[in-house]
Specification:
This protein has 328 residues and is of the alpha/beta class. 37% of the residues lie in helices and 15% in strands. It has a single domain, classed as Alpha/Beta hydrolase fold, catalytic domain (Rossmann fold, 3-Layer(aba) Sandwich). Strands 1-2-4-3-5-6-7-8 form an eight-stranded mixed sheet, sandwiched between helices.
């Protein structure tokens, strides 16, 4: 493992906690889930138990095409310290989108903010991966009172440079274009589930062959479940457009402009082998966050919380310890 940091702080490393954590073998089943209404918003959530005297709660926001199950292992690692709530954002996982939902990133952020505020648990430790990271940036900038700390894992910060060369399947970028996209998505959907699972793993993981069989089976079941949901594919396509539109807004509303307004201590985690959101954006992201530090992980792809949950958990606990000691 290697670490690096780019930050205004004179500290040039990310502290890793020496706390004892449970082993990670990929066999932990998804945490129990159910629909919950909070702040007038209904989401499907998976709750991780935590100590009854915990001072805060962790809230986890998944990426594009993901779900609350993307946080199973990391939430388990941190469950000895905080209870966790992993949400399925509208149109993803098992959350049915409300009528008229526009799938913009501000709409997703507003939904998550309303849900968190309705919980009445005070400021939370907010986590976001990929699209969920972009949503977390918006939420933290607009609702600072809701966020105790911020952990961004490969957040989808604006980048208009071509990235198709990093994708193992050249059809994937075409799947979200306005005219040809629906036809491409239909052809991809006709492939067997195992083929689609392996494509997803090769795209998101640096070492897909090391993903446990239990996790592959979970991904296959999720593919099969989403095929039965009439709103799943439209939600994916429209959220993809919503994310791209966020990259094209005027500078005054750009995520790059919002990041310096975030007051919370922030940890940015990136894998060097990320095929979806280039690690080249990592230093700038951490530098713009006033209290941001950067952890770069080798041999790690787009979902570090799934590929290196133990290392990410130690970095998060290290941040929490440093914040409590007034050193972050």
């Amino acid at each position: 493992m290697s670490t690096s940091a780019t930050t205004r702080s004179p500290v040039t490393h990310v502290p890793l906690s020496d706390a004892l954590l449970p082993p990670v073998d990929g066999s932990t089943p998804p945490w129990p889930g159910g629909d919950e209404t909070s702040g007038g918003v209904t989401l499907h959530v998976r709750r991780t138990p935590g100590p009854p005297d915990a001072e805060s709660t962790a809230v986890y926001l998944h990426g594009l095409g993901g779900s609350a199950t993307n946080w199973t292992d990391l939430a388990g690692q941190l469950s000895g310290y905080v209870p966790g709530i992993a949400v399925d954002l509208p149109g993803f996982g098992r959350t049915e989108p409300p009528d008229g939902f526009d799938y913009s990133m501000p709409a997703h952020a507003d939904t998550a903010a309303r849900f968190i505020r309705g919980l009445g648990v005070g400021p939370v430790h907010l986590f976001g991966n990929s699209m969920g990271g972009a949503i977390a940036v918006l939420l933290a900038a607009r609702h600072p009172d809701l966020v105790r700390t911020l952990t961004l894992i490969s957040p989808a910060m604006p980048d208009l440079r071509p990235f198709t060369s990093r994708m193992s399947d050249p059809r994937l970028p075409l799947a979200f274009l306005p005219l040809v996209g629906p036809a491409v998505r239909r052809r991809l959907a006709q492939e067997d589930v195992e083929t689609r699972v392996m494509r997803l793993l090769r795209l998101c993981f640096a070492e897909p062959d090391r993903v446990p069989e239990s996790r592959r089976q979970e991904a296959a079941r999720e593919f099969e479940e989403r095929e039965k949901l009439v709103w799943a594919n439209p939600a994916l396509a429209r959220s993809t457009f919503g994310l791209f539109r966020t990259w094209l807004v005027p500078r005054s509303r750009s995520l790059w402009t919002l990041a310096p307004r975030i007051e919370a201590p922030a940890l940015v985690v990136w894998g060097t082998a990320d095929k979806l959101v280039t690690v080249r954006k990592a230093p700038r992201t951490a530098r713009l966050l006033p209290r941001g530090r950067l952890l770069v992980l080798p041999r790690t792809g787009h979902v570090a919380q799934m590929e290196r949950p133990g290392t990410v958990a130690r970095a998060v606990l290290g941040m929490w310890e440093e914040v409590a000691a007034g050193r972050w």
